Amino acid sequence: MTAVRPALVTEARGARLYGVDVARAVALLGMVAAHVGGVAEQLDWSDPATWSAVVNGRSSTLFAVLAGVSVGLVSGRTDPPGPPEIGRVRARLAIRAVVIVVIGLLLMALNTPVYVILPTYGALFLLVLPALRWPRWALLTAAGVCALLSAPVAIAIVPAYADASTFALQLGLVYPVVTFLTYVLVGLAVARSDLEARSTQVALLASGAVVATTASITGAVTAPVPWDAGDAFPGVPFVPQGASAGQAFAQVFLSPRDHSSSIVDVVGTAGVAVAVIGLCTLLFDGRGVVARRIAFPLAAIGSMPLTIYALHLVVIAVLPPLPQEPATWWWFAVGAALFAALWSRFLGRGPAERLVARIASVVPR
């Protein structure tokens, strides 16, 4: 069976990481579930009926962390090049970023009931370019600073969106740039950690799980999600009416609510993303042909994330209003797997990925 072709950015040096492609598929299918699957609004681990809400926030976070991983893979994995090659890498990534922003704006023009992440995704590619040669400790330190600033910055920019349209809200408020820059920096640090090594994969799974669990418990104890959190806007901290100063502080910085931009939310969801990447690479990379064949349907989806993401929004736009239920998600998931597997098997790189790569090829390798 033909190997899965490159994704948004072509990986440089080393073998294709099927586990990363599978993780991309998990992120994509999770976002589709949040859009059409009729998942619960808030996650309550004590109530199994709400467990479907695990995709809220965490899927887009995983998508953003994987953006950082992709940038790290294309820029040399554990050994980023120096001048002049790094300049060419930055130029190609900058062109890809602009094209992704344009595609995102076109998808926003479809007026689907979905907040489109691609413009933010492209902007993050541009913002992370200066960090391509930073060591891991510097990347993680910068990510920590962004996590601390996430909530204050999200609150500070709210007045600028007071009279904004739904179109404008998707440009920096729903997916706050500082918050999501945290995730991309974490992903870049992950890519610099030798993802092909079994010890790295185990360490990512274990550390991500510990961080995510610790953050979840901390948030649940110090800042339980208020009953009226359904009125909260995604990406912005929420403080219920009548809250004391201490309660307000806790909700802003320690809330476990999805898309709250609190430290607990940002660190916890980043931990989930790292654990998923560690698990997927542990299961599918370096495990032989059988593992690759098992991974192929999901890896095919993950090899063309831009195509699958765009197609699912086009389908939502052109079809009559779809029922928000698990069956709808299953139709999307099966359709995506069939399309991606057949396209990858016979045509290789996804159509949107091919377009982006061709435009970026104006910069010589």
Describe this structure in words.
The protein contains 14 helices and no strands. The chain has helices at residues 18-36, 58-74, 85-108, 118-127, 136-157, 166-169, 177-191, 198-222, 245-254, 263-284, 289-303, 305-318, 326-347, 351-360. It starts with 17 loop residues before the first helix and ends in a 5-residue tail after the last helix.
Please count the beta strands (DSSP E, at least 2 residues each): 0
SSE succession = HHHHHHHHHHHHHH
What proportion of the residues is helical, as a percent range?
55-70%
The pLDDT mean sits at 90
Strand content: under 5%
Rg on CA atoms, Å: 20 Å
What's the overall geometry? globular
Task: Compute the separation of the termini in Å.
Answer: 29 Å
By oligomeric state, this entry counts as single chain
Give short descriptive properties of this protein:
globular, single chain, disordered N terminus
Summarize the structure.
By secondary structure, the chain is mostly helical. It is built from 14 helices and no strands.
Please write out the topology.
Elements: H1 18-36, H2 58-74, H3 85-108, H4 118-127, H5 136-157, H6 166-169, H7 177-191, H8 198-222, H9 245-254, H10 263-284, H11 289-303, H12 305-318, H13 326-347, H14 351-360
Helix pairs in contact: 1-2, 1-10, 1-11, 1-12, 1-13, 2-7, 2-10, 3-4, 3-12, 3-14, 4-7, 5-7, 8-10, 11-13
